[in-house]
Here is the input.
Amino acid sequence: MKRAAMTLIELLVVIAIIAILIGLLLPAIQKVREAANRMKCKNNLKQIGLALHNHHDAIGYFPSGITIGGSDNLELGGFGGFVRLLPYLEQDNLFRGWNLNGKWYEPPNADLVSTEVKIFYCPSNRSSGRINFSFLEPIAGRPLPNPAATDYLLCKGANAALCEVTQVPAGGRGVFDVNTKTQITDITDGTSHTFAVGEGAGGNPRFRLRRYYPDTTPATNLFPGQSGIIDQSWSAGPAATRELHSLGLMGGGWLGITALRGGHPDPFDEPMNRPLALPGFDCNQGCVNAGTVPDTYDTVPGFRSVHTGGCHFLFCDGSVRFVTEGLSPATYRALSTIAGGEVVEDP
Here is the structure.
């Protein structure tokens, strides 16, 4: 009696059917995975929002966007506002080890900046990541840590000017700036209509650096070995410093803006998800960004995500909403400022 067996043709047909089924299922699986990642990304922002409000309840104000002292030159070190949120994000040990009067690249802070904090990564973009500063060590003449990255930016508003004492016009100021202590009562535009934190996808090749506001091509003449992809750390202060001999395009910052010159007739809008992002750079040419010529105005990167069509934003009332990139520039600017006096509808 002969044993039944599949012919080669039948086997090939079965394999083809399985391949077709896998091809049909993969997009569905990817959509489910991305939906789950977006939910996690949104939940991260909600947790950051709770931390911000707990800080406000305990201390009386939101943390400074940047903490620095003794000079209008932000190139001297300092650290970002996420550091002061650590105790409210179950990172007490990390915060207790931080020297609030020290520079980010010196001990003990240099030993802490490389710590990856999961909540600071949007899983749609990545689940971990550090900024590789090994290229800078020969230039700086000293060992440097590789700071852990973040995919979220504190909203500076619609003006990128960087000074020790903020002088940004009312129409351009956001919740977070240099050495600020913004209270909820300062947000006269309404907490439900004001950004607190937005997405800033980093380490992703779809978002590269550009040098000046009008540039339409990626920056060139970077330091040897430096990545041209925008990224930023949750903790490290400015990397463009005279002390490290590194004045140049050194990536982004933990702040995000909607325009470079809010409060001026020509705002230099920085739209959402712009493929070429500006670095965080202090030109030391005044405190209101009144200039229009390159190197006369400070730069701060804009908000960006890997989600199609827009970014998630945490609002000052604690809600998290997806804001579409098709929003008008005027409305986008208005949502980023705390006391511009604009009347805007829900985004």
